[in-house]
Specification:
Elements (H helix, E strand, L loop, with lengths): L4 H12 L4 H9 L16 E6 L11 E6 L4 E8 L2 E7 H11 L17 H9 L3 E6 L3 E6 L5 E13 L3 E8 L8 E8 L5 E11 L2 E10 L4 E5 L8 E3 L4 E4 L7 E11 L4 E10 L2 E10 L2 E9 L7 E7 L4 E6 L3 E9 L4 E9 L1 H4 L2 E8 L5 E8 L13 E6 L3 H9 L10 H14 L4 H13 L3 H18 L29 H13 L3 H17 L9 H37 L10 H9 L7 H14 L6 E2 L6 E2 L6 E3 L5 E3 L14 E2 L6 E2 L8 H7 L12
Parallel strand pairs: 11-13
Antiparallel strand pairs: 1-2, 2-3, 3-4, 5-7, 6-7, 7-8, 8-9, 10-11, 11-12, 12-14, 15-16, 16-17, 17-18, 19-20, 20-21, 21-22, 23-24, 24-25, 26-27, 28-29, 30-31
Helix pairs in contact: 6-7, 7-9, 8-9, 9-12, 12-13, 12-14, 13-14
């Protein structure tokens, strides 16, 4: 939005028909002014996208900021399973703010020219044309309630770099729901000419978090700008900009990554900034000491013969990956020295894995298990391919043993956040059809020594994958539609007066319609199914396999029951802390207590003491649930469902163990369990329970 629609249309017609070629040609060829383009190809697709940290949307997952080819910046969320929804259009909101401020950043700015002036027309467009946008980490702000109490509220920042070198910093309250979640928007002048790339600099020193914005230019310079975060708990910023590289050597900065590391010699945390500049990698080590901020920088040369087209970094160990368009990927491993650091680099030739390819981009998975590469066909016999077929290829960067060790020693203790590591483990078990002995023993030791539910969930994951590997392959692919004619003519049905002879004739005709390709397909599938499992004979091979499956199934049920009991103890703890004497909480407290104590083999002193306190508080009251259809009592006999005396079946919420007596409910991402939606009359502690992930697989609930 650069002005009133009528005035903008008149100005566009004036500039297009201008006698001055420097005005008319500049206007007609600039797709920012002419997104429709008339005879030019349409502006479809995306320039850039950026993922927020985990925990920003209503389901605790990531938000996606997308910049389209026609320079529109929007934020999307995965609110329902496999459904992406646009939450807000930031370009429209920012344009309205500038229009209300007469296209001035501050009130002290002098008024500029009118829209009829071509330079002013260009200025208003450049101050709203995003180049890049990046998310910060989640930070904590303090919000004052009506009773003057302060509560901590999570927030996240989105920095947007514009063509005129200004940076808009949006602050969003979490969970982000839409326009109403926008807290503030501040604009910073970077002073860098021809900005090309942006990244957040986040540094932690003595439990103090510092932040800033790293901006790179197409002419070469790189510098960090201070960002003043008001009302953000425990956050600090720089006093003045820090120049990391000031030479105008016309090596454009393509990509910037900031990696937090620990300095083994200085015994403190440090920050490594790497930037792709042409065919080189510029690095800068930032270290805060008693003397102030120490800056060491240099370039890594001799990596690629062509310019770097993409760069990514593994923040777990600081490894950097770069690629050029000729299909060569370099792995750079930082090694600390007494003064600064050096890089060891090795070449990864994708041609040895995928053949002759051209690379267009790379990305490393969150825990460093996979490297994703976008490729097209390379040259064949000195000729370029006629058509480009873009493919996403995956290269494993860790072995199964490394992934298993990282899962066992993880500080995250969440399977969903380490899904790339669990995928490597899953693939190994599916291939070998057994859990390696070293992993089983190490996991049992962890469970005995620590007892954390994370290791029980990891054990459940391994047993489920083992059970899946033992099962016989289905006779047909589940995704393939069946071509059998399942429809029956009304005249052929019994209710229309047909005879048995007619039915037999129709059946024989229907059987004869089976095509030879269907018959061939059935034999092929049977052959592959027979090959999937070793079978010594009809009975001798199947019985041991069935016994093995039953044994694994029993182990799975035992682990699920342990996790259920642990979560029941947590729910009962919340009930005890947040209820008064003889208060009905809508949670089947008495049923959960009886269920926990129903097994004589289960002897948990903590659970018995907790249940004793709760029963004393309930004062012989039971507060049973009632069926909404027939008003009969719903007994608590099963953790998964509730059945009344009239046979009405209701599924139970796995987070609160209430019966879901509504037509809509939520389900975990892996379809393990179901949960009910929070209602307005629910107290805060029940709503907090309903925000939790799946107790079996750590997946979010939709």
């Amino acid at each position: 939005q650069v002005g009133p629609k009528k005035e903008v249309a008149e100005c566009k017609e004036k500039f297009a028909n201008s006698t001055d070629p420097t005005v008319s040609q500049t206007f007609m060829l600039d797709r920012v002014f002419n997104p429709e383009g008339k005879s030019l190809p349409p502006m479809r697709g995306f320039k850039y996208s950026s993922w927020s940290p985990l925990g920003c949307d209503a389901n605790g997952r990531c938000l996606l900021a997308a910049l389209t080819m026609d320079n529109r910046l929007t934020i999307h969320a995965n609110l329902n399973r496999l459904q992406w929804v646009q939450l807000v259009d930031l370009t429209e909101i920012y344009g309205e703010r500038l229009y209300e401020a007469s296209y001035r950043l501050t009130k002290a700015d002098t008024p500029r020219g009118e829209l009829e002036d071509f330079s002013e027309f260009q200025r208003r467009h450049s101050m709203q044309t995003p180049v890049r946008m990046e998310w910060s980490g989640i930070c904590t702000t303090q919000q004052v309630k009506h009773n003057n109490e302060c509560r901590d509220v999570g927030s996240v920042l989105l920095a947007v770099l514009f063509e005129n070198s200004n940076i808009a910093v949006w602050q969003f309250q979490l969970p982000f729901l839409g326009k109403e979640s926008i807290t503030s928007c501040n604009t910073i002048e970077s002073g860098i000419s021809s900005p090309s790339v942006l990244s957040w600099w986040e540094y932690e020193h003595n439990n103090r978090k510092m932040s800033g914005l790293i901006v790179g230019s197409a002419f070469g310079p790189v510098k960090i700008l201070p960002v003043n975060l008001k009302a953000v708990k425990g956050y600090f910023t720089l006093r003045q900009p820090v120049v990391l590289w000031q030479e105008m050597d016309h090596l454009p900065v393509h990509s910037i990554k900031c990696i937090p590391l620990y300095h083994p010699y200085q015994k403190c945390s440090c920050s490594l900034v790497v930037a792709a500049r042409g065919a080189y990698v510029f690095w800068c080590l930032l270290l805060i000491s008693k003397a102030g901020l120490n800056v060491h920088n240099s370039h890594v040369t001799g990596l690629h013969s062509l310019p770097i087209v993409s760069m990514t970094a593994d923040k777990q160990n600081g490894t950097v990956y770069t690629c050029s368009s000729d299909g060569k990927v370099r792995q750079l491993i930082p090694i600390f020295t007494d003064v600064a650091l050096k890089f060891e680099h090795q070449l990864i030739k994708l041609s040895e894995v995928f053949g002759s390819v051209r690379t267009h981009g790379i990305a490393v998975s969150p825990c460093g298990a996979y490297l994703a590469v976008i490729t097209t066909e390379g040259m064949t016999n000195g000729l370029h391919p006629v058509n480009k077929n873009y493919q996403v290829q995956f290269v494993t960067l860790k072995t199964f043993e490394e992934a298993a060790a990282q899962l066992l020693e993880s500080s995250v203790q969440n399977l969903f956040r380490q899904v790339d590591l669990t995928d490597l483990v899953r693939w190994k078990i599916l291939k070998d059809k057994h859990i390696p002995q070293f992993l089983q023993e190490a996991l049992d030791k962890k469970i005995e020594s620590c007892g954390s539910t994370y290791f029980w969930r990891f054990k459940l994951f391994l047993l489920r994958i083992l059970y899946q590997s033992m099962q016989k392959a289905p006779s047909e692919a589940m995704w393939r539609p069946s071509h059998e004619d399942a429809k029956v003519l009304v005249s052929d049905s019994l209710g229309v007066g047909s005879t048995e002879d007619d039915q037999e004739e129709g059946t024989s005709k229907q059987a004869s319609k089976q095509s030879p390709c269907d018959a061939g397909k059935g034999t092929d599938v049977d052959d592959t199914a027979d090959d999937s499992l070793p079978q010594s004979s009809e009975t001798g091979g199947r019985e041991p396999m069935e016994e093995k499956l039953l044994e694994i199934q029993a182990q799975i049920e035992a682990v699920e029951m342990h996790l259920t009991r642990e979560h029941m103890k947590r729910v009962l703890g919340e009930v005890y802390l947040h209820t008064w004497i003889t208060e009905n909480t809508s949670i089947p407290t008495r049923g959960v207590c009886d269920f926990l104590m129903s097994d004589d083999a289960y002897d948990d002193r903590t659970a018995r003491v907790l249940i004793g306190h709760i029963l004393k508080k309930m004062n012989k009251q039971t507060f049973p649930e009632h069926c909404s259809l027939c008003k009969e009592i719903l007994p608590f006999t099963d953790r998964k469902q509730a059945v009344c005396s009239n046979g009405h079946i209701w599924l139970r919420c796995f987070l609160t163990y209430q019966s879901c007596q509504s037509l809509v409910y939520r389900r975990c991402l892996l379809h393990d369990s179901i949960a009910r939606h929070p209602t307005p009359e629910d107290p805060e502690w029940i709503k907090r329970l309903l925000q939790g992930p799946c107790t079996f697989c750590d997946s979010p609930v939709f």
